[in-house]
Design a protein that fits this description.
It is globular, with a radius of gyration of 19 Å. It is mainly α. The protein has one domain. The chain is built from 13 helices and no strands. 77% of the residues lie in helices and 0% in strands.
């Protein structure tokens, strides 16, 4: 196991591409678990807080038993104190929590399909920009025609994969705009995590910082909502233990993201992670389907289109030959 982890976390290009794809699979699994948690609690925002809170506990336990994680966290704070890392960038986790908060409001209005496509469009567009200014690694990547085409193909791939669900969506300019902005926030978060990871040299330390700021932000939102509305806090009573795994999966996802983005950039991470998301969705539909689930040919077509986007960006082994 030790050697397997080392091979995944190596800086080898193919290894990092696999990390990106695996991150996409983790997103899908986490979304399924958090969705079940949301149903049990009857409140998506509270479910998000539980997910972030359990993730914070998980990564804190890792920090307690691993000196390198604690050292990495201290290095982040030291870099901020020395003005090498602007203080506001330590709030990257707030952007991830903001995405969750916006999704809980937009999905009931626009539907899952439109939210997915709109937020992914925001992610890919901002990925081109943050790579161009070199936020993640300090190395600027020119916005080429090939990168724009790859980004466009990826958005089309996601649109195709959820094509059969558009009938359940309602078009709303405001909701779509919020979804695009939420997706953009995720793209910026990934870039900031890549930069933070260059100082921490430990992806779990970067993940811990994200969960500290994200959990605090969601708790603040819930307290404000409770103060100005009649919503009560924490109606949750009990549930199976696996329902709490979403946060732990999120810790690993953030750790993988920080590592991969630091070396590959945000756009490349997005291309491969979207492919992982679609493959993960297909695997869940096959091996752990929910009621009424069917294997969609649109999803399969979307997977192939995603790989076409990877080739267009020159990341495939075939395109590198």
């Amino acid at each position: 196991m030790k050697y397997l982890i080392k091979s995944f976390l190596s800086r080898d290009l193919v290894g990092l591409e696999l990390v990106c794809a695996l991150s996409g699979v983790l997103i899908v699994v986490q979304s399924r678990i958090n969705g079940e948690l949301s149903l049990l609690m009857g409140d998506p925002l509270e479910a998000a807080l539980v997910s972030f809170g359990t993730g914070l506990i998980f990564v804190s336990l890792i920090s307690l038993v691993r000196a390198d994680v604690r050292a990495g966290y201290r290095d982040i704070l030291k870099a901020s104190k020395l003005k090498l890392l602007p203080f506001w960038r330590l709030g990257a986790g707030v952007l991830g929590a903001s995405f969750v908060a916006v999704s809980t409001q937009v999905v009931p209005i626009a539907g899952v399909a439109l939210f997915t496509v709109a937020s992914l469009a925001g992610q890919t567009a901002i990925s081109l920009w943050v790579d161009y200014i070199g936020v993640a690694s300090g190395v600027k990547t020119v916005i080429t025609k090939r990168r724009v085409i790859a980004a466009f193909i990826t958005v089309i791939a996601v649109a195709v994969s959820v094509w059969d669900r558009f009938a359940m969506s309602d078009f709303s300019i405001l909701a779509i705009t919020l979804a695009v902005l939420a997706g953009s926030a995720v793209g910026v978060q990934r870039a900031l995590n890549g930069q933070i990871n260059s100082f921490s040299k430990n992806s779990f330390a970067t993940s811990q910082l994200n969960f500290i700021t994200g959990t605090a932000f969601l708790l603040l939102l819930l307290l404000l909502r409770s103060a100005f509305t009649d919503h009560s806090i924490m109606n949750f009573t009990s549930g199976p233990l696996w329902i709490f795994l979403g946060g732990s999966i999120g810790v690993i996802y953030i750790a993988f993201t920080a590592l991969a983005v630091q070396h590959l950039g945000v756009l490349v991470f997005t291309l491969f992670s979207v492919g992982g998301m679609l493959i993960g969705s297909l695997l869940l539909d096959v091996f752990a389907p929910t009621q009424g689930t069917h294997i969609s040919p649109y999803l399969i077509a979307g997977i192939f289109l995603t790989y076409l986007g990877v080739i267009a960006n020159g990341q495939s082994r075939f395109s590198r030959k």
